[in-house]
Design a protein that fits this description.
Layout (H helix, E strand, L loop, with lengths): L1 H22 L6 H15 L8 H9 L1 H4 L1 H9 L1 H6 L1 H38 L1
Helix pairs in contact: 1-2, 1-3
């Protein structure tokens, strides 16, 4: 029964994110709105982790199976991909490097900020 409640919460957040994507005239996918909304709800305490944790862990556990359809789509589109393979790889490698660097620098900045606050409290 608790899975049903947790999936209902996740689906409700997903539905709200679809509405946001429909009514906000920005080129942002609904999934980004959904993840942002879920993050804000968790950070503000309006939603407790235990209210969605079991369902989220279940979804994470089956995530590889969810990518099978995407992989099959790539295989069927091989002809189109092969024409631009080098540029496709360059874009993916480049964007991955940018994301890794951005994430690393952001994490370092947050860690330094946290350490500075702790140092202030200790003084």
């Amino acid at each position: 029964m608790h899975y049903l409640k947790q999936f209902t919460i996740i689906i409700a957040i997903s539905a709200v994110s679809e509405l946001l994507a429909t009514f906000i005239p920005l080129p942002i996918p609904a999934s980004i709105y959904g993840m942002s909304l879920l993050f804000l709800l968790l950070m503000t305490g309006m939603l407790k982790l235990k209210q969605v944790e079991s369902a989220a862990n279940l979804l994470l556990g089956i995530m590889p199976a969810l990518f099978v359809v995407s992989g099959a789509g790539l295989i069927t589109s091989y002809g189109q991909i092969a024409e631009n393979f080098a540029s496709w790889v360059a874009v993916n490698v480049g964007s991955t490097i940018v994301i890794l660097a951005t994430t690393g620098l952001s994490a370092q900045a947050l860690i330094r900020k946290k350490k500075a606050k702790e140092a202030e409290r200790n003084d």
